[in-house]
Specification:
Structural class: alpha/beta
Number of strands: 17
Strand content: 15-25%
Number of domains: 1
Radius of gyration: 18 Å
Order of helices and strands: EEHEEEEEHEEEHHEEHEEEEHE
Length: about 325
């Protein structure tokens, strides 16, 4: 029988990015067990580079001072189902999306959990509006009120927890592909959960485009032969159906943001995954970026073996 594993959404990143692009930063503040060695951080650096190079939004900084207060609340990266972390006077640099990462030995077949964080804000009208929108349109109107339905997403960040008891494959160069039979690809899972932090299956601008068991975003529908994209019928509306087929740098693949990931196999963001991020408000440069550098030739995909993993996400509502 193929092994089945479950994930849930949460995350964070750190890396310096090109000017005028989103800067995904993984933050290891809560890595109390020392799980994230330099080798493992190198994998997240590659995840960061992919999103940072392909998302062209310009996000304003959030800089609380005086009576302007900004407090973030997110699932504890070391105990996501049992606790949360609160950080007052939280500073967010321009273009930055900060993701706190940690690990836990999950009792079930869980690979990871991740999603965006919540926040509370007070102060001047301009400060409150900026904290909500980070300069993006489609979130607040000119009067400072929330747009409904919300059409964009500009989070400060969030958190991701990876299973510490999972047999992981850590690849220092994801532009090449080796045989890692019996292991789960850390890069694949980190890409999946980072997309949840960025709003896939978790943002208001995602749920506003869900009708029944389909996602109706215009860009996604265009990439899906003109049809709304089927969602996995599990009641969460957080994943594409595993029956869909997308394209990852010209290679046919089930969307990365479906609820299943195979053991011994690397999966990439497909055109459908990137299109969905476009639909929820991100400025996506390309629907075919999969790794920071050239991807493996299609023939090399024959090295990837079977085994099944299940992934998921949960959103923390914010206001």
């Amino acid at each position: 029988m193929k092994p089945l594993i479950t994930l849930t959404a949460l995350c964070v990143m750190t890396t310096a990015l090109p000017v005028r692009a989103v800067d995904v930063v993984f933050d290891y503040t809560y890595d109390s067990t020392g799980f994230f060695t330099s080798e493992r951080r190198a994998v997240l650096d590659q995840v960061s580079r992919v999103f940072s190079l392909n998302l062209l939004d310009t996000l304003t900084a959030i800089a609380p001072s005086g009576r302007n207060a900004f407090t973030v609340d997110f699932f504890d990266p070391q105990n996501p189902f049992g606790g949360s972390k609160v950080v007052e006077n939280f500073q967010v640099a321009a273009d930055e999306v900060r993701i706190f990462v940690g690990t836990q030995a999950f009792s079930s077949q869980t690979l990871g959990v991740g999603g965006p964080g919540a926040y509370s804000v007070s102060g001047s009208d301009a400060f409150v509006k900026n904290a909500a929108s980070r300069g993006e349109t489609g979130i607040v109107d000119v009067a400072g009120g929330y747009v409904f339905p919300v059409a964009d997403f500009a989070p400060w960040g969030g958190s991701i927890t990876f299973g510490s008891n999972v047999a992981w494959h850590f690849d220092s160069d994801v532009s090449t592909l080796e045989n890692f039979s019996g292991q789960f690809d850390f890069y694949t899972v980190a890409m999946h959960e980072t997309a949840h932090v960025l709003g896939f299956g978790t943002a208001g601008s995602w749920f506003n485009q869900v009708q029944g068991d389909t996602f109706t975003g215009a860009v996604t529908s265009a990439a899906n032969s003109g049809q709304p994209a089927a969602l996995q019928g599990d009641g969460s509306d957080a994943h594409f159906s595993s029956s869909l087929m997308g394209s990852a740098n010209g290679v046919q693949q089930v969307p990365l943001l479906s609820p299943f990931i195979n053991v011994g196999r690397r999966q990439y963001m497909t055109n459908l995954d990137w299109a969905a991020l476009d639909d929820i408000g991100w400025e996506v440069a390309s629907q075919q970026i999969t790794v920071p550098s050239p991807v493996p030739e299609p023939g090399n995909w024959a090295l990837m073996l079977g085994g099944l993993l299940m992934v998921g996400s949960f959103a923390r509502r914010r206001h």
